[in-house]
Amino acid sequence: MPTFLLALLSFPPMAAQFTATRMGLEAGLTTWDITMLRYGAAAIGSLLVLCDGRRRAAMLAQPARFLVVGLLGGVAYGAIFIFATGMMPASHSTLFAPSSTIICTLLAAGLVLGVWPSATRLVGVGVIVLGLFVFARAAGAHFDIEAAGGDALFVLIGMMWGLFSVLARKWNLDPLCCVAAMGLTGIPGLLAWYAFAPSGLGSATQWAAVGEAVFQGWLMTFVAFLAYVTLVHRLGPATAALGIATVPPLGVAFAVLVLGETAHRGQWIGALIVVVGFVISAGLNLSAIKRAVGIPAPR
Q: Which of 146, 207, 244, 256 is the most buried (most CB within 10 A)?
């Protein structure tokens, strides 16, 4: 599958999840409902993956490794993300969520794989972070001590996602088995949710619940995350992580189109700066850009 198509399958759904979550909340579901509908549905998909004898054997042959990547990218990651988001304004998280993921993935790739970014890549990442800062400020982000706890948690989940990507690449784990391992963490999470978490599930929210399970559980996990892990194998974790910077601008676009929200001009300026950062990160190398979009090199 062309790399450009894998990117389309990865990042727009990641951006759309914010609008999907907002729709679920407005329908009466709680954030914990949405989290566990996501991972509960993903767990069902994971059990179907385990019905494939070849992939079941692959996971059983390396149980510790799949346990590690499952815990790094599974229900604990989702729960921490929700908790961190709740500690700060949404406009603030649009800066720290992607920035921490990109920077921590670069750091993890260097420490684990020995692949450190070039000077050009570092400049490009700096421009991307600047674009995200402009984007967040245009949305009304305020940077103060009250958000420090949420910032620290975003650094934690940034490192979790970075390690997930790096270890999946280092151990050359099958992408579908990786997302199945993530989904399986939803089983103990479902038990905890049922026992302790407040819920808005009922007859009035059943169709919203089905929509969240299908989109967040199956489309996100078995399409978006599967495509992302495939990108990690193809491009490397540091390069694949750069695409996460597109999530905030795409998320605003979905909010405008679906929810009728208003976007600020500064947000689109920030998005343009992010694009410039991508070009710099590619080193202005036309052949690298062609490879990224799946155009074969001339023979």
A: 244
